[in-house]
Amino acid sequence: MSNTITGNTNCIISPIRRKRFQIQGYDRFTDSELYDYRLGLRFAYFLCGSLVLLGMIFENLWILTSAFIIAFFGSFLLRHPFDYLYNYAIRYLIHKPVLPFRTVQGRFACGIATVWTAIIIYFFYFGHISLGFIAGGILILLAVLVSIFDICIPSMIYNFLFRRT
């Protein structure tokens, strides 16, 4: 189902896309708000996944460590570190509103990414390059799913473990 424009900036998202945002904890927003936030909510996942990819391509522990640190801060701050870049620069270029605070599901996802990135760093540091690429490939796949399709597997895990309704 494609997006339907209903006025100048009010857009309706598909029921599937709405459900995916609800899984991520963004269940108190209108379709129009979610439509405006969609790029910004994906921005941090895209950049973190890109950092991990670069770290793997160059087998560079400094790049991987920076991805680890960013994910670590994203796991407990109300705004992901890359949300600040989006809110104070990018959004002005694309004329979008300030992003809402990250949900507990999003912070949980960053916590998983923190641990996963530590595992990747461990593998690369101790010379287990193949295992590092396998673990990194899985993390990048998860980042691609949420960056493009809004499918956040860690949010699903969080909801299964903690939001039984």
Structure in words:
It is globular, with a radius of gyration of 16 Å. It has one domain (39-162). Helices cover 71% and strands 2% of the residues. With 165 residues, the protein is mostly helical. It has seven helices and two strands. It has a two-stranded antiparallel sheet with strand order 1-2. Helix 2 packs across helix 4, helix 3 (61-74) runs antiparallel to helix 5 (104-125) and helix 5 packs across helix 7 (153-162).
What are the salient characteristics of this protein?
globular, disordered N terminus, 165 residues, mainly alpha, 2 strands
**What can be said about the biggest beta sheet?**
2 strands, antiparallel
The radius of gyration is 16 Å
Identify the strand order in the major beta sheet.
1-2
Q: What are the secondary-structure elements, in order, as H or E? A: EEHHHHHHH
The count of helical stretches stands at: 7
What's the number of structural domains? Answer: 1
Quote the average pLDDT.
Answer: 93
Helix fraction bin = over 70%
CA-CA gap between termini: 28 Å
Q: Can you tell me the residue ranges where pLDDT is under 50 for at least 5 consecutive residues?
A: 1-8
- Strands, total number: 2
Assess the beta-strand content as a share of residues.
under 5%
Structural class category: mainly alpha
> What is the molecular shape?
globular
